[in-house]
Amino acid sequence: MKAVEIKPDIYWVGAIDWAIRDFHGYVTPNGTSYNNYLILDDQITLLDTVKYDFADVTIDNIKGLVDPARIKNIIINHIENDHVTSIEKIMALTPHATIYITEKGRKGLDRFFDISKWDIKIVKSGDSLNIGKRNLLFLETPMLHWPDSMMTYVKEDKLLISQDGFGQHLASAGRFDDEFISSSSESALEDAVKDYYANILMPFGTLIKSKIAEIQKLGLEIDMIAPDHGIIWRQDPGKIINMYLDMANGKADLRVVIIYDTIWHSTEQMTLPLLQGIKDEGVDVKVIKLRASPISDAVKEFWKARGCLIGSPTLNNSLFPTVAEFLTYLKGLRPKNRMIGAFGSYGWAGGAVRDAYEEFRKMGLELSEPGMQVLYRPAPEDNQRCYEFGADFAKKVKEYHARFE
Ligand code: FEO
Predict the structure, then answer these.
(1) Which of 11, 88, 287, 288 suits 151 as a labelling partner, its CA being 20 to 30 A distant?
(2) Atom in ligand 1 nearest the alpha carbon of residue 167
(3) Which of 208, 229, 248 lies at the terminal end of a domain, its last residue?
């Protein structure tokens, strides 16, 4: 896709990755984009690059606007591979450009490239760069989501180039929120935002709140937010800021998600009366089988719901491997403000439910105890116990949810 003007003389020059389905383990059914931006001012300035595979795409987009040799400044907001691995190819075309980057970014860049011949200037929060008619303000955002991360604010255009922040893994022909909504839907866009936040930014809610507060305190007027993935927020940039604040503050839907796996369908059978018990308490419920769903989808659904029941059969006195994998991934995301419980079948000895609760305790989630176990295969009385267990869990989730209203 060729360059798109997003503001007068400011262009998206990135690449759309329609085919990617595995983004370092995160399943991306809708592909993604690698967004970078070119400002045509007295000093031509490139903000970010793209993944190596798409270096020629962004270079062609730049060439459609200007000779790359004329680029004077390159801002690197984030050094993860999907944004920086085409830097060598670009620097070969404009070897005298100056790179602006945080100190931690420079250290990381040095581990990936021979930077000895590059002119690199270190910037920190509050530093600015005049490029002619415009002034760029740098805002460090360490751990959002890497130590090197920063954002760049283009003052005269009220434009925030936000690197990974406020992004989504979406490949689309439309570059803007309003275009995406008109060709798809607002709920699809919101779902993509939640998916991205859950899988990448969930651990950093406190930092997100303080960084947004810092931006608000600076009084920066923002009428467009341009992230390095997905669509650009021009119709309603306040929407994405409010969504981030809501998620950072623990907002969730009054819903229970049952996330399980099964060996000979006994644990699976338990989900049916559980679901009915939850539903009969008036709480929405969703069921996800781990071997039938990407782990990143399961995390998204966990994040959207206030309550979660984890189902695992006992295998070798412990958790079924896909459930253990899911809990390990979830623990790393440091979830908060969610209620959790466990259930599962066992044969000659249990262990899965016990071990699930051990993992829950390490995460510091709100526990619903005890869990629910069934020997071998659910009998009619077990189905009734599961129904009551589900209904009781739903009641607890409703009470817990009320704390956040
Ligand atoms: Fe899109 Fe942290 O890279």
Answers:
(1) 88
(2) 1
(3) 248
Same structural domain, 81 and 162: yes
Composition of the chain by helix, strand, coil, percent to 5: 40, 25, 35
Kindly state if the Cβ of 78 falls inside 6 Å of ligand 1. yes
Give the model's pLDDT for residue 232: 98
Q: Tokens 């045509």 belong to which residue?
A: 40
* pLDDT reported for residue 289: 98
| 234 CA → ligand 1 middle, Å | 21
- What is the CA(153)–ligand 1 centre distance, in A? 18
Same domain, 214 and 278: no
Domain stop point among 183, 218, 248: 248
Same domain, 75 and 37: yes
Pair (36, 173) in one structural domain = yes
Active-site residue among 145, 169, 355, 387? Answer: 145
> Which residue's CA lies nearest to atom 2 of ligand 1?
80
| pLDDT confidence of residue 180 | 97
Q: What are phi and psi of 120, to 5 degrees?
A: -120, 130
| Mean pLDDT calculated for residue range 227-246 | 96
C-alpha–C-alpha distance, residues 218 and 227, integer Å: 20
Segment 156-172, tens digit of pLDDT: 999 999 999 999 999 99
| Amino acid symbol at 112 | F
Cα–ligand 1 centroid distance for 81 (angstroms)? 7
Mean pLDDT of all residues in the chain? Answer: 97
- Split at pLDDT 50, 70, 90, the class of 11 is very high
Q: Which residue's CA lies nearest to atom 1 of ligand 1?
A: 164
C-alpha 87 to ligand 1 mean position (Å): 15
C-beta of 148 in contact with ligand 1 (< 6 A): no
Looking at the structure of the chain, the number of domains it has is 2
Query: Measured at the alpha carbon of residue 92, what is the angle toward residues 88 and 93, in degrees to the nearest 5?
Result: 125
Q: Which of 228, 229, 301, 382 is catalytic?
A: 229
pTM: 0.95
